[in-house]
Design goal:
By secondary structure, this protein is α+β, with helices and mostly antiparallel strands. The chain is 21% helix and 23% strand. The protein has one domain: 4-Layer Sandwich (CNF1/YfiH-like putative cysteine hydrolases), CATH 3.60.140.
Length: 333
């Protein structure tokens, strides 16, 4: 028997409270940070669309400030993207901006995880395009800033303070179905000896349950993989005063499921990835959910669905800083 809830607006699980620090503002790009990752001292950020060199995606062409597109989209000029990426590195850590190497990946909505084991492999082409393919990155090497690009999909950043390992995951519905986050934690255990109870994770801005309507075929896919799938879907009824007051006006002879009248099926990717982190062994207290819906806040975030594909890309980044010579000397003493 299905336990799918029926409501007008999906409500965020009270256990999944937002754990985001106030956005950093000013002349620099606006970034979001996880409280737990910040307290752990690891360099990381979730970008927004605010303040940058890009103008092609502006909702108001007369707007004075540009936007912070970090993807090589076909509509934006390469010079703008390069300028935005340089600004990101400088904003993450002014002193380390010249040291950090931005590592991106050709994302294909797969469960493929790429491990960065050495500095010698090429990370980008001459014109800055990603060489590696997959949807997750992990490393224990310092001065590499792992980056995932999104415009609705769910970004997940993970840090192991004991083994000094970082990872970044791109989880759309296909990646989530493929358990990319759960598999990724398993990869950290095998590759680095990470203990899931030591790991700190942050689920960044992405399309929320209120905005993400999907078809029945997606529910069937999830039901074939997760015993808790019914907890991830909600039937949402559009609130329409005229339809509610005069339902007879909107009767249709179409077969069930083919009429625009009726509930929409919504998927909660926040909860799905939060559940995968828990199932992988992470502690509830070590998981931050920023609970920022990209499709609702298009003045703040790029949204592929809300903006029908004509939009930029945000980045979620995480990296280890090299220990300075001074700190090494102090530790020896």
């Amino acid at each position: 028997m299905s336990t799918t809830q029926k409501s007008r607006v999906p409500k965020l699980d009270p256990k999944l409270k937002s754990k985001a620090l106030p956005a950093s503002k000013g002349s620099k790009p606006t970034l979001l940070h996880s409280k737990s990752l910040t307290n752990a001292g690891v360099a990381h950020a979730f970008t927004t669309r605010i303040d940058g060199a890009t103008r092609v995606y502006l909702h108001d062409p007369d707007q004075r400030a540009g936007e912070f597109n970090l993807g090589w989209t076909k509509h934006d000029e390469e010079a703008n993207v390069r300028a935005n990426r340089a600004a990101l590195l400088k904003t993450i850590d002014d002193e380390a901006s010249e040291r950090f190497t931005l590592v991106t990946i050709q994302q294909r909505h797969t469960p493929v995880i790429r491990i960065i084991r050495d500095y010698d492999q090429p990370f980008t082409t001459e014109n800055g395009r990603a060489v590696l393919r997959g949807d997750a990155l992990a490393t224990n090497l310092p001065d590499l800033l792992l980056a995932i690009q999104t415009a609705d999909c769910i970004p997940v950043l993970v840090y192991d303070p004991k083994r000094h390992v970082v990872a970044a995951f791109h989880a759309g519905w296909r990646g989530t179905l493929g358990r990319i986050v759960e598999r990724g934690i398993g990869t950290l255990r095998l590759e680095y000896g990470s203990n899931p109870k030591d790991l700190i994770a942050a689920i960044g801005p992405g399309i929320g349950p209120e905005s993400y309507s999907v078809g029945e075929e997606v529910r069937h896919e999830f039901e074939s993989q997760f015993f808790y799938a019914s907890e991830l879907f909600t039937e949402v009824y559009n609130s329409d005063f005229i339809r509610n007051k005069y339902p007879m006006l909107f009767l249709t002879a179409r077969a069930p499921g083919h009429s625009p009248i009726g509930p929409q099926l919504h998927l909660d990717l926040w909860k799905a990835n939060h559940r995968q982190l828990l199932d992988a062994g992470l502690l509830e207290k070590n998981i931050d959910l920023l609970a920022e819906d990209t499709a609702v806040n298009t003045d703040r975030y790029f949204s592929h669905r809300r903006e029908e594909g004509f939009t930029g890309r945000m980045m979620s980044v995480i990296g280890l800083k090299a220990v300075s010579a001074k700190k090494k000397t102090k530790r020896k003493k």
